[in-house]
TrEMBL record:
Protein name: VAC14-like protein
HEAT repeats: 92-127
PROSITE patterns the record matches: HEAT_REPEAT
Main localization, broad class: membrane
Cellular component annotations (GO), alphabetically ordered: endosome membrane; PAS complex
Residue stretches making up the Vacuolar protein 14 C-terminal Fig4-binding domain: 429-608
Amino acid sequence: MTEVAFEVPEIVLRNLADRTYEKRRIAAVELEVIVKSLCAAGEQENVTTIIDLLAKEYTQYPQSNFRKAALIGLTSITFGLAGEAARHLDQIIPPILNSFLDQDIQVRYYACEALYNIAKIVRGEIVVFFNQIFNVLCKITADSDTGVQNASHLLDGLIKDIVTETDQFCIEDFIPLLRERMNVLNPLVRRFLVGWIIVLDGVPDIDLLGFLPDFLDGLFNMLSDSNLEIRQQADSAVCEFLQEIKNSPNVDYGRMAETLVQMADSSDGFTRLTAITWIDEFVKLGGEQLAPYYADILSAVLPCIADKEEKIRVVARETNEEIRSVYADSSCAFDVGSVLTVAGRLLSSEWEATRIEVLHWMSTLFNRYYDEVIMFLSEIFESLLSVLSDPSDEVVLLALDVHTCIARDPLCFHNLVFYLINNFRVYSSLLEARGALIIRRLCILLTAERIYKEFAAILEKESDLNFASIMVQALNLILLTSSELADTRTLLRQSLVNPSGKDLFISLYSSWCHSPVSIVSLCLLAQAYQHASSVIHSLGEEEINVKFLVQLDKLILILETPIFAYLRFQLLEPAQYPWLLKSLYGLLMLLPQQSSAFKTLRNRLKSVPLQTHISQLNEGVGMCQDTENTHIGIDFRSKLLLFQQMQEQRRIKVKTQVKQRLKK
C-alpha cells in the first residue's frame, strides 16, 4: 500500500474499509476535512495523490470492503474539494463508473450512492461524462438486486434534472448510444430508455425531433412490449412526436417512412395501426416530398387494406386514396418503375382486397403514364398473366382491364392470347370455370373481332388436336350465346354480302375446322347453308361419336333461341333457302331418334310448309347447286377440302392412339 504523508493518517484509511458503518462515516468526515485543508493550502498535488490511491489501488483490492472504501473516499474528497471538484473529475468519475459492474451487490449500491452524491455537488460539470453514466445506468437499471435498482432510479432522476437544467448536454454525441440501446428487449431497460426520450424531448433547447429517424424503429418496437406500462409510455412518446411533426416545418419524412413501412408489417395489431396512421399523416403533410418513397409506402399500405383489423383497413384505404390524389397531379415526379415493381410483387398477395387495389393502381399507371410503364412491362407481365388464374372473379376482370391497356402493343396482345390458350390447355378447369368470363370481358374491352381473330390464328397452328377442338367449342358457344357478341353475330350473318363479315368468317374458318359441330354452326350463322350441307354430308362415321352428338344436341337447342330467329323465319321460304332445309334435315339424320334433340328438330321441320312447295324446293336446289363454290371471294370448295383434311388428321391421330394403347 502506498504511504501518504500526514494528510491521510493510517487510521482514516483503515476505518474507510471497516465493516462498521459508524467507523466508515467518521473516516469519511475526517478525509473530507483533510482535503479541505489541502485545498486551502493550495496543495492540489497531494489531493491528486490521495485520489490516485483510492482510484487505482483501493478499487482493485480483492476484498470488497476496500472497493467500497474507495467509493466512500472519492465521495468525501469531492465534498472536500467543493468548488474545485470539477478539475479532478477525470480522476474521480471513471473508477466509480467501473464499480457499477462490480460482482458485489454492495459495491454496486455504493457506486450509485457515490455518483449520486458527487453529481449533486458538481451538477452540470458531470454532463461531460453523460454517455458513460447513461451506459452504466442502462445496465444497472435491470440489476438483479432491488436495492441497487432503487438506488439507480434515484441517480437516474438526478441526472435527468441536471441534463434539463444545463446547456452543456450534447445531443449529437448521445444519439448513437441511444440508437444502440433501443434494441434491448429487457422491460426495465426499455422503461428506462423511454423515460429518457420523454425527458429529452421536453427540453426546449434540445431538438430531439431532428434525430427521431435514428431511434424511431426502437420506439415502435416497444409498442408491442408485453409490459403494459412500457406500451403506454411508448405510445405516449409516439403520439407526442407525431404532434410535433405536424407542427414542424422541417421534417425528414423519408428516413422515417422507411421505418414506418417496416412497422406496418408488424405481427402486432397496435403497432401496425400506429405505423399506418403515421404514414397517413406523412402523406398528408409531406405531399410531393414523399414521392421518392411512394413505392415503399404502397408496399406497406396495400397489404394493410386487407388487414384483419377494421381500423387498420380504414386508415389504409384513406392513405391509399391520398397517394392516388397526389399521383393525379401531373407535376408530381415519382418513380414509375419502383411502383410497378412493388405492384408486381403484391399481385401474389394472399389477400384479395390487396390484389384488387394493386390492379387498380396498375390501371391508373397505364392510363396516365403508358410510355413509361411499357418500358418496365417485362418485369410485371408474367405476374399479370398469372393473375388471370386468380380464384376471384373481380381480380380476373380487373386484370383483364389492365391487359386491355397493355394490348395497345400488338406483341403484348398476342402474348396475352397465347398465354390464355396455354393456360386453358394446362388447366382445363380454368377454361370451364373462367373461360367464358375472360373471353367475354376481353371482347367488350378489345372488340370481339380482334379477340376472335387472334384466338383463331393461334389455334389454327395448335398441335394438340383434342385441346384445339375443346377450345374451339368453347369459343363457338360464347359466340353463339353471349349478348356481348351480338354485333359480331350480326357481322357474320352478312358474310356472303359484307367484306368485313367475309373477312371474319375466313379468319375463323380454319381453326373452327377442329370441331365439326362448330364449323356447321359457323356456316349456319353466316347463312352459308350450301356449304353447311356439304360439311354435314362429308362427315364420316369416326366424327359421329358421343362427343359429337352431345355438341349437336347443344346446337339444336341454340337453334331454338332468339339468336337464330332469322333462320327459323327463313324456313318459311323453303324455295329461297333450300340448302338450309337440306342442312337441317342432314343434322336430323345424324341424331338418334330417341334423343330429345331429334324430337325438337323434327317438330320444327314439321312446321315448314314443305309439301306445298316441293317442286319449288327441288328447283331451288338445282339452281343453287354450284353458286356457292365461290362467293364474294370465299372459295368454299377449298374450305371444304381444308375441313376434310383436318378430319383426316384427327382420324389418323385417333388410330395412332389406339395402337399405342393396345401395345401397352
